[in-house]
Amino acid sequence: MVGAVFNDFSYSLFIVSVESDETSYFVIGSILYRTLGYILPEPKDSLVINSKILTVMVRPQPKLTDPVVVVLAPLLNGTTDPQCVTWDYGNIEPGEENWESEGCQTLPSPVHTKCLCNQISTFAVLAQKVKGPVMPPSGMPSVPLMVGSGVSCTALFIMLLIYAAFWRYIRSERSIILVNFCLSILASNMLILVGQSQTLSKGLCTMTAAFLHFFFLASFCWVLTEAWQSYLAVIGKMRSRLIRKRFLCLGWGLPALIVAVSVGFTRARGYGTSSYCWLSLEGGLLYAFVGPAAVIVLVNMLIGIVVFNKLMSRDGISDKSKKQRAGASLWSSCVVLPLLALTWMSAVLAITDRRSTLFQVLFAVFDSVLGFVIITVHCAMRRESDNTNDIPLSYPYTR
């Protein structure tokens, strides 16, 4: 009895429990053909080779008592009915009849395909081409997604133009936090639209899912950063470059760290499926987004309670302008955070279940309202722009 295990980013091979009467050792070799499937003739019945081709050799030839387990990752998204096959060496000329599915059991999943075969040979996975397009014929996202993202992006873009025009007068920590927050939402909306047309390209779909994961978390982190800034205002913390760098580390660095750990731990498996460019619902990868988002919401609530108590207490802030700015930041966080959570929750549901019009309409409504709420809270209701309570960053002062 012997066993062998090979692991790679795109395949796994397990050979266990073999018998031989002549020798007590075996020489095992494997060759992974990364592009051979592109030049071989296409199989019949609208099938495509949807994996890299793996050739396994064992010398001397053993007698298998258990199936050979081969795990292959898919190359193409948008295919159905995967089936494990082996190469028939009886046919001299390579053609569409060389692949045989007899003797192999297929155990599919959204991330990979597991094959249990009763012989050592050349392995691959064939899959059925999609008979009807998964997306609209034009390859464009659905109308509700385009409307919601378009309205939100337009509102945020207008607000960024206003801030750019008056940046000399309103430049402050809160303004910098807001600009970064808006950029994360703009990037998220664009990636939602782009991801709807990238499901057939596995590489682009994986990149889209990873960046969407990053910008979703970044938007939550920038709301938390604003709450942190309001907390520093009520405790009278001295403004410094170190604090501003910590804002950037929290807003962009923490999401990047979470995504990097998730990608490294899973080897990017689960980032993008054949149906959508988002985290796979299987394998627990979705918790890499839900978990940090839930923690951020909880911490934001705790900071909000502390700031509110500080503002309402008799021995709280005596400076009226500081109290006004801290209250404005607290109000912004309390209004924007629930709406942001509802927006991204409906976005995830709309991405993963594209057949449901309800989730797409909900996303369009929440996303549009989010854009208008941000521009209302930070432009129309921003008193600092009128009375210049926000002192430029070039003048350090105590908050």
From TrEMBL:
Organism of provenance:
Alosa alosa
**Pfam families the UniProt entry points to:** 7tm_2 (PF00002), GPS (PF01825)
Q: What is this protein called?
A: Uncharacterized protein
Q: How does it sit in the membrane?
A: Multi-pass membrane protein
Protein's GO biological process: adenylate cyclase-activating G protein-coupled receptor signaling pathway; cell surface receptor signaling pathway; negative regulation of angiogenesis; peripheral nervous system development
Q: Which GO terms describe its molecular function?
A: G protein-coupled receptor activity
Instruction: State its location(s).
Output: Membrane
Q: Which of UniProt's keywords are assigned here?
A: Disulfide bond, Membrane, Repeat, Transmembrane, Transmembrane helix
Query: Which residues are in the GAIN-B domain?
Result: 1-133
Tagged with keyword Cell membrane: no
Q: Which GO terms describe its cellular component?
A: plasma membrane
Organism domain of life: Eukaryota
Key word Repeat present? yes
Q: Which residues cross the membrane?
A: 143-164, 176-194, 214-235, 247-265, 285-308, 329-351, 357-377
Q: Where is the G-protein coupled receptors family 2 profile domain?
A: 141-382
